[in-house]
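Q: Two folds, back to back.
A: First:
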Amino acid sequence: MKKKPENAPENKTKALNYAQLLLKFRPRSEKEISWRLKEGGFDAQVIQEVVEGLKAKVLFEKEKGVLEIAKEKLGELQGIDTQKAKRRIYSHLLRRGFSLEEITETLDNL
């Protein structure tokens, strides 16, 4: 595990920058961002503050993110039985940290 920086404000800034970097590549759930920050060696208080700050800035576009990921996965599963494809998408989204409610709603809209 990485060493935690001593200075608390600097620690929060680094955590926020890291979270924003992760969100640049693809949409991510709060759970995934929290997990990645924890793996990065940030403490629970800093992680909570960063996630709350991101929610306030509406950087977690969950519905859009879940739908984008589901459509991308659906494109990869062309030619597979519809029910089987939906089960695979369901599992994929669950591993990404999205809630059951979000996943079910998204699958209904596909």
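A: Second:
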Amino acid sequence: MTATTKAIPAEFDSVIKDAIASGRYSSEEEIVTAALQMWKEREEKLEKLRQDAQVGIDHLERGEWIEGEEAIRQIKERIAKRKENKGP
């Protein structure tokens, strides 16, 4: 893997030093890698949420929706069925 050098704002110096001193991380590179991985995962989750929201918007635009009370009843029914399937 090719390494690149980037400047990290000084406000993060103590955070990085504390993380290394605590033993949670062994180097600045490990911290940056972990932070970027978390950021990537967050972005992927946000994209999935955007896609799911768009599905809902598309349904609404086509008139495919149900009233709030009916939606809650259906959700409660699904929860009850899941609990039944899990058993004791």
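Q: And?
A: The chain has one domain: 11-86.
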